[in-house]
């Protein structure tokens, strides 16, 4: 019998799903996102409500993750629960998080804990949030309290989720709170979030010298509509530089590149302030020069015509499903950081309510992660976004990223085929021919290219 082809992942590779507090817990009424929902900014008119009810029953979903033989899980803490008013610490919130973390350990799921994922307590937002550099000290005080309280249950921290998305969506596009359209303010918020990360890094390091501490950025590809057009090429390169690499460079060196360094102060002690690079990757945009869009550096972004794409969402921003992109991004981060730290895919996911593109998409993206690993890029784990459909910010319940379908009103869960497929991959620590055959046979040639027998031979790492 012919041997089964497979792409085996390194020993100890982390397999998990990613989530955030506001999107999953339910009952969060004390942060700026709740207020944003009340003000009617959710495009579907919905609210986060009970979300996935994790505040009361996260354990039932942790059990599902264990059944999928995941060995890790990324979840967020909600600052507005822990410090509901300035300087007042709610120990019962900490107790609840302790229960959750204990349960994850009991189920052999290594917790990766996010300290900030888009939500700010109302009192903090009302003082100007991260627009004001002086407010960073409040964040550090919260981080210190949390790490002191939970250090026996977690040693793998993610300080700030996607500073570039928080700044861009909240201060350029205005579709996240505070709904501004002000590039200069966006840049200051971005800088302050990076400083918040750096200071959080050292605060955690002091308490827990052996902890693994990082942050993550959203990396999005911007490719020119026509590579023969100098203007398309220029504007896509500028978007790429600003959205992706300017922040990474600031994190690496503490300095923004020209022209941002004219407006933004350096970040003290940045270089060295991370133990891993968190990579969130979803999609790419095609960019055409458009003189009517100064706020986006004169580039109009759109989904490549004919591309396989995510369910579009009301804002149409979930985009193309483009597996090579995850490889390009991993390579870009690796080269720009000269391989100085391991990388984790802290998010990668697909909005696909009918699950008719997700199995193939997961397989093809993982094959590209495997390719990066074969080429020597140290990727330590993959966190799929997300375990159970959750509250997708401005899109409300309209975008479905979960391996498991959720009816938020009845709280009924229905695993999608992708859930059992992901379980099989985690169990095998590999993509096997049989998995591809059963879940997405159309991906076979992409994953095990016929023409490239060398590639298949070198596929075990
Ligand atoms: C965010 C998640 C979000 C996901 C899908 C990421 O940028 O971190 O909170 O649900 O994208 O849009």
Shape from CA axes?
Answer: globular
**What is the helix tally?**
17
Number of E strands: 13
Query: What characterizes the major β-sheet?
Result: 8 strands, parallel, barrel
Task: Give the averaged pLDDT, no decimals.
Answer: 96
Regions with little confidence, pLDDT below 50 for 5+ residues: none
Radius of gyration: 21 Å
Percent of residues in helical segments? 40-55%
Question: What ligands are attached or bound here?
Answer: beta-D-glucopyranose
Protein structure class = alpha/beta
Strand order of the largest sheet: 2-3-4-5-6-7-9-10
Fraction of residues in β-strands: 15-25%
Q: For the record, give the distance between the C-alpha atoms at the N and C termini, rounded to a whole number.
A: 23 Å
Order of helices and strands: EEHHHEHHEHHEHHEHHEEHEHEEEHEHHH
Description:
Helix content is 40%, strand content 17%. The chain is an alpha/beta fold. A hairpin with a 4-residue loop joins strand 11 (404-407) and strand 12 (412-415). Helix 8 packs antiparallel against helix 9 (183-207). The longest helix is centred in the middle third of the chain and has 25 residues, at 183-207. The chain is globular, with a radius of gyration of 21 Å. Bound molecules: beta-D-glucopyranose. Beta-D-glucopyranose binds at residues 20, 23, 161-162, 165, 218, 280, 347, 385, 392, 401.
Main attributes of the structure:
single chain, 461 residues, alpha/beta, eight-stranded parallel barrel, two-stranded antiparallel ribbon, 17 helices, 13 strands
Task: Please describe the topology of this protein.
Elements lengths: L5 E3 L5 E5 L2 H4 L7 H7 L15 H14 L4 E5 L2 H4 L8 H16 L3 E7 L5 H4 L10 H15 L5 E6 L1 H11 L9 H25 L4 E13 L5 H24 L6 H4 L12 E14 L9 E4 L21 H13 L6 E6 L9 H17 L4 E6 L19 E4 L4 E4 L1 H12 L1 E3 H7 L4 H4 L5 H5 L4
Parallel strand pairs: 2-3, 2-10, 3-4, 4-5, 5-6, 6-7, 7-9, 9-10
Antiparallel strand pairs: 1-13, 7-8, 11-12
Helix pairs in contact: 3-5, 7-9, 8-9, 12-13
The protein binds beta-D-glucopyranose (BGC).
